[in-house]
Design a protein that fits this description.
The chain has 16 helices and 16 strands. With 417 residues, it is α/β, with parallel strands linked by helices. It starts with 8 loop residues before the first strand and ends in a 7-residue tail after the last helix.
Length: 417
């Protein structure tokens, strides 16, 4: 299924994206005021509705107050009882550095196919989002498409020893992972799959080493950071214009040289407080449903278990990407080399979420305009749902990822069954 930039289609309930309009906020400050007002309205509505449910439930249990206490204890136990998230699929760790691990999901396969390397998001959460559960695993989807030589990087939370990590250090780690994935295969390039932050890092790596990238897949990845209306984009521009990098440096200083993962988490929650409220009210509604409790715990274990981001790296990306937007504009320098996305001509696969308020599809799809890839080798899909759903959602992993990975496999030596 090939979709060029000028011919939209609809398949499997997902919209194949046409060229997205260049919608940039004329006044980021005005957009932020509107966004904050709407966020407050949604949060207030969620609080009122949640409070009404809690009150109604308590009144219904008035004859048995011990039941109310019992439910409250159980509810708090689930809310506060966080555990470290885990990976779902059997695999092995190839090597580990202070900033990343390489995980091998090849499972003994010796198929002569181009290896695939996944770069997960790095935004204060564990990398196991790409292998979240038995039915929610990008790694399994990749393997099922015939890309059996599958690897993923796993970002290690920042420490005092790694707070000075630079983007060049991450590019070097990706290069080492590419070496490991290619070892003994006879191939000279890999398929890169980048989710969110992993997407722009994949793009940067591809610009530095275009000859080592067979295909490039970007999901929910901000390539044009200034496209579309987003709270993150607008706030970074407004903050930088008014105060420079001082607020960001202050947060890093509070983290003793690192950006605390808890700060990042708080920012995500602040953008959708109504979702946070509704999630915990829904937990109360389903206290006696073991499957619902298990789903709640699995997500919260991942979402609320944070890890810090190296301060040097964080401040660099704020200055050069979030504020400067230098990657798409061709002004970004890494390792003393000015990067140009026009140097990329490999097949390009782009996936955006229709209701993604973190990275709207236009930020992903702008990549197609910057590269030299022929139009008939550019795929664009818009999946229903939001940001996290692109990486761990059942629908995206069942309906959106398989067609894309099947096409990647076609460029990787995988023969059709």
């Amino acid at each position: 299924m090939t979709v060029t930039s000028d011919r939209p289609a609809v398949t499997d309930g997902a919209t194949e994206a046409p060229d997205a309009p260049a919608i940039d906020p004329v006044d980021p400050a005005a957009y932020l005021r509107t966004f904050r007002g709407e966020t407050l309205r949604k949060a207030t509505t969620a609080l009122v509705e949640g409070g009404a449910y809690v009150t109604t439930r308590a009144l219904a249990q008035a004859a048995t107050p011990h039941r109310t206490v019992y439910d409250a204890v159980r509810w708090w136990g689930h809310v506060l009882g966080r555990r470290r998230p885990t990976w779902s699929t059997e695999h092995r760790i190839v090597w580990e550095t202070p900033i990343a691990r390489l995980r091998d999901f090849t499972d003994g396969a010796t198929d002569d196919v181009v290896p695939t390397l996944v770069l997960p998001p790095q935004a204060g959460h564990d990398s196991c989002i790409v292998d979240f559960g038995p039915t929610q695993s990008q790694m399994q989807v990749i393997r099922k498409a015939g890309l059996t030589r599958a690897f993923t990087l796993d970002w290690v939370g920042a420490t005092q020893a790694t707070k000075g990590t630079t983007v060049e250090d991450y590019v070097a780690v990706v290069d080492r992972a590419v070496d490991s994935a290619l070892e003994g295969t006879g191939h000279t390039s890999v398929n890169l799959v980048g989710d969110c932050q992993g997407g722009w890092l994949s793009t940067i790596y591809a610009c530095v080493h275009p000859e080592r990238v067979n295909t490039l897949t970007l999901a929910g990845a901000p390539i044009d950071f200034h496209a579309g209306d987003t709270a993150i984009g607008a706030s970074s521009r407004v903050t930088s214009r008014r105060y420079g990098t001082l607020p960001y440096r202050a947060m890093v200083a509070m983290g003793r040289g690192n950006m605390p993962g808890q700060f990042v988490l708080n920012g995500f929650i602040a953008m959708s407080p109504d979702a946070e409220i509704a999630k915990h009210v829904d937990l109360l509604r389903h206290l006696d449903d073991p499957s619902a409790i298990a789903r709640y715990q699995a997500f919260e274990d991942w979402f609320k278990h944070t890890q810090d981001v190296p301060g040097t790296f964080y401040l660099w990306l704020v200055e050069h990407l979030f504020t400067g937007n230098e990657l798409i504009e061709g002004r970004l320098e890494v390792g003393g080399k000015r990067l140009s996305m026009a140097d990329l001509s490999c097949p390009l696969f782009l996936l955006g979420g229709a209701t993604d308020h973190i990275t709207p599809p236009v930020q992903v799809f702008r990549a197609a305009d910057a590269v030299s890839t022929p139009a008939d080798q550019v795929w664009k899909r818009t999946a229903p749902g939001g940001h996290l759903g692109l990486f761990m959602g059942n629908q995206a992993l069942r309906e959106e990822w398989p067609p894309l990975m099947t096409e990647v496999a076609r460029y990787s030596g995988v023969t059709s069954n």
